[in-house]
Structure formats: structure tokens, C-alpha cells
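Feature request, filed as a ticket because there's no other form

It would be nice if the structure record came with a short human-readable summary line next to the C-alpha cells. Right now we just get the raw output. Example of a typical job, pasted below so the devs can see what we mean:
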Amino acid sequence: MTKEELIDKCQQLFDQVTESMPKDLEKLLASGGVNYEDADNDFILPKKILCAILMEEQFQYKPLSSDRKAKKEIENYYAMI
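Raw output as currently delivered:
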């Protein structure tokens, strides 16, 4: 795989994630579990929600197996960001 091919494939995945995020937000708000009416008008609640949505996306894209090598590789990539 070339660098350009890798970037293209990653961009496709980024697009999929950003497309699903508003749907996850709507699902969360429809659950009634977010008391946004009493929240301050700052970015604290949106950041918490973003973290929760990113956690959901993590489960959608992580390797299916419990392959320790793949998990370690992902952790190494994370450490480099």
C-alpha cells in the first residue's frame, strides 16, 4: 500500500465515522438520558458526548478478534499521536 492509498482508505473511514456521529447524537438525545436543559452553555457537555460517541465508534472499528498483536499495534499508534 502506498502512503496515498493509506490516506485515502483512512479518509473513507473518517467519512463513515463523521456520517454516523449525528445519528449517535440523535439516539442519545432520544434516550432521555441527557439533561441538556440544565447544562451550562459551554463545551463541557458536548465534549462528554463526543467522548461517548467516539467510544461507540471505537467498538465499531476495533479488530474482531482478541489478537494481542493487533491490540498492541493500535496502542503503539495511539502513543504516537
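Something like this underneath would help us a lot:
The helical segments are 3-30, 44-61, 68-80.
The first helix runs from residue 3 to 30.
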